Fold this protein.
Amino acid sequence: MTDAGIADFMAVSRLEKDCFGVDAWSFLDLIPVLTNGNVFRRKLVEAGGKRLLGFAAVEFDRADRCGFLLTIGVAGPSRRSGLGSLLMRECENACARFFSPGRMKLTVAVENEGAIALYRKFAYRTVGRIEDYYAAGRAAYLMEKNL
Ligand SMILES: CC(C)(COP(=O)(O)OP(=O)(O)OC[C@H]1O[C@@H](n2cnc3c(N)ncnc32)[C@H](O)[C@@H]1OP(=O)(O)O)[C@@H](O)C(=O)NCCC(=O)NCCS
């Protein structure tokens, strides 16, 4: 597991497409995620190879003293082998260090059962539902956890 940055632009862009399809970030969305100094970014790369297996990013909101999970994604064939959990743990630890101890927030599509299961396993609780969050008729749960 290592830091990620703008040099990973193409690989992260491909992974985002693999994970989110038509909802994947555009190039313009992705640039600040990979460059902003308030964003913690980690990547997982195949052992002995170059293929990006996972990526996660958390934005630190100093005013609200919390981290917001901007994205987490694991390449299709590598899922359910603990990589998403590794990325979550890194993000939470970074947030806890930054705010000592702080909070994490995230949003997730209400139909994304896999991600919701991961977050519940990490003890996130649902604190709200935001209608039309992703697009008209596509709602998100807002979840959070005290670290
Ligand atoms: C969500 C995601 C990051 C999980 O990554 P992962 O590497 O598969 O996660 P892990 O292997 O660490 O899973 C940990 C636990 O989460 C839960 N979980 C993860 N995926 C699940 C699924 N598809 N169905 C049910 N539970 C799931 C399980 O409890 C799992 O533990 P188990 O495998 O021992 O049962 C991955 O499925 C992904 O990239 N999805 C597409 C992108 C996405 O939806 N990101 C979240 C946006 S909000």
